[in-house]
Amino acid sequence: MRSDGSQSAPLGLKIAAACGLLFLHLPILLIFVYAFTTEEKSFVWPPPGLTTQWFAVTWNRPDVWQALSLSVRVAAISTAIALILGTLCSAAVSRTRFFGRETISLLVILPIALPGIITGIALRSAFSLADIPFSFWTIVLGHATFCVVVVYNNAVARFRRTSGSMIEASMDLGADGFQTFRHVVLPNIATALLAGGMLAFALSFDEVIVTTFTAGQQQTLPIWMLEELIRPRQRPVTNVVAMVVMLVTLLPILAAYYLTRDGDQIAGSGK
């Protein structure tokens, strides 16, 4: 037992935890290693040599930039839609009482609970029935279905921990609805919205299954990577792109974690 009264973990548990972490993260380390290999056509272990030439090759590949641009644009617009709809839904569910409130809450979070292939097939069928051609906007709509859920879950939890007396006091002091939202509500939910937006962006950026059913002939970056693995051409380029995808998605997830880890300290929560 330690001096602070806590017990140290058994040796077996420490070993099991270390093995679990290696099982999860060792493949990721291999991706980084193969981004520097001199072998072009196959993955050989150990790599016959190390080089940085594939970073220049990746930089000069126009298909990589096209796929990256599409992924960033889709993720940005899907996140913007999710922030608006997720905030409105969470405010309605958490701040008001009406018939069917819990049912609506369930319907909002249902898309992320369903397997992605079910959502993809449903969206593809709906687009086909409505004679909507596959385009940039069909991808955005597909991604927005689960991005809304991420923002909604973050915002509704923060709304429920925010004291309603603060809003009532603001209205009693003469503030209108917009002023109350700007000066009272928004400061309390801002970090939750930012964290939800970052997570939504990360999910949209590396989404594959729903995109496959809604993109038509377009290629987002994850779809491009999948095609490159099926029909390989300069294999290390795929690993270089994978490194970029991991960094792009890891940074907003870490930022969201640090923004929300102290989220229980909400102004007015004790009043």
UniProtKB/TrEMBL annotation:
Which keywords fit this entry according to its UniProt record?
Cell membrane, Membrane, Transmembrane, Transmembrane helix, Transport
Is Transmembrane helix there in the keyword field?
yes
Entry membrane topology = Multi-pass membrane protein
Under CDD domains, the record lists:
TM_PBP2
Q: Where in the cell is it found?
A: Cell membrane
Give the CC-aspect GO terms.
plasma membrane
An example of a Gene Ontology BP annotation on this entry?
A: transmembrane transport
Bilayer-spanning residue ranges = 12-36, 70-92, 104-123, 135-156, 240-259
Which ranges carry the ABC transmembrane type-1 domain? 68-256
Cell membrane found in the keyword field: yes
> Which InterPro entries does the protein's record reference?
Bact_Polyamine_Transport, MetI-like, MetI-like_sf
Which PANTHER family would you find in this protein's record?
PUTRESCINE TRANSPORT SYSTEM PERMEASE PROTEIN POTI (PTHR43848:SF2)
Q: Which family does the entry's similarity section mention?
A: Belongs to the binding-protein-dependent transport system permease family. CysTW subfamily.
Q: State the name under which the record lists this protein.
A: ABC transporter permease
Task: Give the source species.
Answer: Mesorhizobium ciceri
Ranked from the top, the taxonomy reads:
Bacteria, Pseudomonadati, Pseudomonadota, Alphaproteobacteria, Hyphomicrobiales
